[in-house]
Amino acid sequence: MDVIAFFKPYNVLCKFTDPDGRPTLAQYITLSGVYPAGRLDMDSEGLLLLTDDGGLASRITSPRHELTKTYLVQVERLPGPEALDALRTGVTIQDYVTRPAQARLLTEEPALPERPVPIRFRRNVPTAWIEITLREGRNRQVRRMTAAVGHPALRLVRVAIGPVRLGDLQPGEWRRLTPEEVRGLRGR
């Protein structure tokens, strides 16, 4: 069984082929038989797990297992206590209310690799970083949550899935998970 942690770069699709010729996982991952357990949008970065174990992939992606996923999100403007409380208690987006999340304002910019495409900069609009931990993961959920509380996301980097952390991986790098990490994903 193979399970790997991959630092998905910005502007890379979470699949191995693309008829439009956009960058895909195939440009970075040479192992055969592994597939993404979940996804990150093309404009999001960070930790992506890939495996050849369908049961494990289901456990990672299914909200019923409540496996935490942690993100660092650069947002427009400095969120106040009300915005953070809303993220923590649940935000209405589209036709549902998100589950309660952990959310905290970071006091310093996180040490992340530079993104190849610069973040939109507006001199009169400051930015801030929030750490958000979810136990669900709907399509573009973090971006929709921060926008719903008045702080659109400028950059989104997933840094952890359950016990697995991005660690020292750089964009485009991958590593095999340790047996302890795999057991943690399985809930053992």
Under CATH, the topology of the largest domain can be stated as Alpha-Beta Plaits
Average residue-wise pLDDT: 92
Beta-strand fraction estimate: 25-35%
In CATH, the homologous superfamily of the largest domain goes by the name: Pseudouridine synthase I, catalytic domain, N-terminal subdomain
Order of SSEs, N→C? EEEHEHEEEEHEEEH
CATH class of the largest domain reads: Alpha Beta
Q: Major β-sheet, in short? A: 9 strands, mixed
Helical stretch tally: 4
Instruction: Please indicate the count of domains.
Output: 2
Low-confidence stretches: none
3D architecture notes:
- Helix content is 18%, strand content 28%.
- It is an alpha+beta fold and 188 residues long.
- The chain folds into 2 domains: 1-66 and 162-188, Pseudouridine synthase I, catalytic domain, N-terminal subdomain (Alpha-Beta Plaits, 2-Layer Sandwich); 68-160, Alpha-L RNA-binding motif (Alpha-Beta Plaits).
- It is globular, with a radius of gyration of 16 Å.
- The mean pLDDT is 92.
